[in-house]
């Protein structure tokens, strides 16, 4: 019987202690935990490097700028297809699956240009993949130049980045602290309020009855 009573008292005692903590402690604990988790994530995650190469569509004698712009949009869509990546893997030295996962393309509605962006944990490999895909794309465009009257030329080669594009440990720590502070604030709002029935507060003891009250009851 004594053991059961002790087990019942422990949760009540812990709840009373939690309610007795100052309100700012939940917010501080959330900020600290979030900063530690975010900083740890930034330290264990390898950095990512990004490199971008550009190709431009140039209209031929039988073409015009709007046509070149339209073909630039089309080449941007086919740049990550197997026909192009199959040739690019030879120059990049990586499998097609790696190119498919690492290379992204972007086009502009105003300029006949295609941006080929590659990401990797190695800065030199990121540049090699971007340049390999742009080279393969210009080769495929050259094979169809007689039909399209549009030439695809390399506008700018990708260079090895000197700094990672991924978030640093300091930034992830700051983001984690912000998220932890938000969760701590929500926990603070949901924190139960102390009432007269709280286990940690003694119940009020009625005062002694006066003689007049006792005489009236009799």
Stretches where pLDDT falls below 50 for ≥5 residues? Answer: none
Give the termini distance in whole angstroms. 42 Å
Structural class: alpha+beta
Report the C-alpha radius of gyration, rounded. Answer: 34 Å
- What general outline do the C-alpha atoms trace? elongated
Short summary:
The protein has helices spanning 2-20, 24-44, 65-78, 82-92, 96-102, 123-143, 145-148, 169-189, 211-217, and strands spanning 49-59, 103-107, 113-120, 150-156. The protein has 218 residues and is of the alpha+beta class.
Structure write-up:
- By secondary structure, the chain is an alpha+beta fold.
- It has nine helices and four strands, in the order H-H-E-H-H-H-E-E-H-H-E-H-H.
- The longest helix is centred in the first third of the chain and has 21 residues, at 24-44.
Helix-strand layout with pairing:
Elements: H1 2-20, H2 24-44, E1 49-59, H3 65-78, H4 82-92, H5 96-102, E2 103-107, E3 113-120, H6 123-143, H7 145-148, E4 150-156, H8 169-189, H9 211-217
Antiparallel strand pairs: 1-3, 1-4, 2-3
């Amino acid at each position: 019987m004594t053991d059961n009573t002790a087990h019942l008292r422990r949760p009540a005692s812990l709840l009373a202690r939690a309610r007795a903590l100052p309100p700012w402690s939940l917010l501080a604990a959330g900020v600290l935990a979030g900063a530690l988790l975010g900083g740890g994530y930034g330290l264990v995650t390898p950095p990512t490097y990004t490199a971008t190469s550009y190709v431009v569509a140039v209209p031929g004698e039988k073409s015009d700028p709007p046509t070149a712009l339209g073909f630039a949009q089309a080449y941007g869509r086919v740049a990550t297809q197997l026909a192009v990546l199959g040739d690019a893997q030879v120059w990049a030295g990586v499998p097609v699956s790696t190119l498919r996962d690492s290379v992204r393309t972007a086009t502009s509605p105003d300029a006949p240009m295609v941006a080929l962006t590659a990401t990797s944990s190695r800065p030199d490999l990121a540049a090699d993949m971007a340049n390999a895909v742009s080279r393969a794309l210009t080769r495929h465009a050259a094979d169809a130049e007689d039909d399209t009257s549009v030439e695809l030329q390399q506008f700018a080669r990708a260079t090895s980045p000197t700094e990672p594009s991924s978030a640093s440990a300091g930034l992830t720590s700051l983001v984690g602290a912000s998220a932890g502070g938000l969760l701590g604030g929500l926990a603070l709002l949901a924190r139960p309020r102390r009432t007269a029935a709280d286990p940690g507060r003694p119940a009020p003891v009625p005062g002694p009855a006066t003689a007049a009250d006792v005489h009236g009851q009799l």
